[in-house]
From TrEMBL:
It comes from Eragrostis curvula (weeping love grass). The keyword Metal-binding does not apply. This is Inositol 3-kinase. The keyword Nuclease does not apply. SUPFAM superfamilies: Ribokinase-like. Belongs to the carbohydrate kinase PfkB family. It catalyses: myo-inositol + ATP = 1D-myo-inositol 3-phosphate + ADP + H(+). Keywords: ATP-binding, Kinase, Nucleotide-binding, Transferase. PANTHER family: HEXOKINASE FAMILY MEMBER, INOSITOL 3-KINASE. Residues 215-286 form the Carbohydrate kinase PfkB domain. Its EC number is 2.7.1.64. GO terms for molecular function: ATP binding; inositol 3-kinase activity. GO terms for biological process: myo-inositol hexakisphosphate biosynthetic process.
Length: 357
């Protein structure tokens, strides 16, 4: 595979199922969209990972399961990365949005799983090595043995806590269990990064988990914090006009992974996570990114990052904030502000608003 000296292919493996999302407000359906972290994650990684012409190639394999009722096979993300077909119906979530103005940290929606497709088994994963893997289940489909197989296949594994700690009550409502009590806990020392929202963080046990891997806690419009063994950092957010919070955490994780692929330290890569988290909340469902915006982001990365040694390619990670952290934030912020101005001026670009009545 082509690549610049010191580059080479950095193939990624994303494991988690696409789903149907039904968005409700006051019991009324206000949107029906493609969902599932795999859809949001591959959307960002396909858009912003470095490519061969940028010196490093980062192709992607997505392992996802849906039923014959899957309604979004021709949407861009599933069309590029087709799911495995099962007899069981596609996983489906109802997201009930509250009328109360959500604070940065309070849950802004109640999720209920109304259908669950089959789990993803270890044998469903390709039998080859990957530079990195993202475990991004939404409905318990990434089994502990599947995560273990990912860890064997991938040099670095990034995990979304929602893949590990979700439980579903008799009505399908999403609840959380403590990570320590799950079969995933013993795998933590072999995971590189664990991402949790501030709602999920208490179930992770950040102080224990940070001894094993780097923990990233996302804090909605306040950005995020990283905790590793021996240090921590706060990473500032980007401006956004929020119309639908769905997929913010997924898009964050993918932006973060892309930052590592570009050679950023973890704290700097979290800027790219925050950037794509903010981009996600500005759209209903899986965003179609503006091509000029993507080009602007890539030009910034090309100009600022020494890409000869992608962080994700090594055996150890650099967590610290670099000298160019603030400069990178400022440059990305300029692009984000341009995009949010455009969104305010031009609400005709397909954007509805799920967040306000
Ligand atoms: N209203 C917002 N404005 C700007 N950025 C946001 C906003 N909401 C979320 N984000 C970005 O997306 C990331 C993930 O959002 P968060 O709500 O914490 O995750 P989740 O979707 O898992 O609940 C945040 O860390 C932040 O970078
Ligand atoms: O909003 P977010 O937490 O990043 O991730 C969401 C999941 O929590 C939800 O279960 C799924 O239905 C959405 O499509 C999306 O993947």
């Amino acid at each position: 595979m082509k690549g610049a000296p010191g580059g080479g292919a950095l193939e990624g493996l994303v494991v988690g199922s696409y789903c149907h999302d039904v968005l409700l407000r006051g019991g009324r359906v206000v949107g029906e969209t493609l969902g599932g972290a795999a859809a949001f994650v591959s959307n960002v990684l396909d858009a912003v990972s470095p490519r061969a012409e940028e010196g490093i190639e980062a192709p992607l394999v997505v392992v996802s399961k849906v039923g014959h009722d899957f309604a979004y096979a021709s949407a861009p993300a599933p069309a590029r990365h087709p799911p495995l077909l099962c007899a069981a119906p596609t996983t489906s979530f109802h997201a009930q949005f509250s009328d109360a103005a959500a604070s940065a940290h309070a849950p802004d929606r109640e999720l209920r799983r109304v259908c669950a497709c089959d789990p993803i088994y270890p044998a469903d994963l390709p039998d080859r090595r990957f530079a990195y893997g993202l475990a991004v289940g939404v409905a318990g489909e990434v089994l502990p043995e599947t995560l273990e197989r990912m860890i064997r296949l991938c040099r670095a594994v990034l995990v979304d806590a929602q893949a590990l700690i979700r439980a579903f009550d008799g009505e399908g409502a999403v609840r959380h269990v403590t990570l320590e009590g799950t079969p995933y806990a013993r795998l933590l020392p072999r995971v590189a990064f664990l991402k949790a929202s501030s709602e999920e963080a208490p179930y992770i046990g950040v102080e224990t988990a940070r001894r094993w891997c780097c923990v990233i806690v996302t804090e909605g419009r306040d950005g995020c914090r990283l905790y590793w063994d021996g240090g921590e950092a706060r990473v500032a957010p980007f401006p956004a006009v929020q119309v639908d919070p769905t997929g913010a955490g997924d898009s964050f994780l993918a932006g973060f992974a892309a930052g590592l692929l570009w050679g950023l330290s973890a704290t700097d890569a979290a800027l790219l996570g925050n950037y794509f988290g903010a981009a996600a909340v500005s759209h209903v469902g899986v965003p179609t990114f503006n091509a000029k915006m993507l080009q602007a982001v890539k030009t910034i990365l090309e100009g600022k990052v020494k890409r000869c040694n992608p962080c994700i390619n090594g055996t150890t990670f650099n967590f610290e904030r670099s000298n160019m952290h603030d400069e990178l934030h400022t440059s990305l912020q300029e692009v984000a502000m341009l995009m949010s101005e455009k969104q305010e001026i031009d609400p005709a670009n397909g954007i509805g608003d799920i967040c306000s009545t």
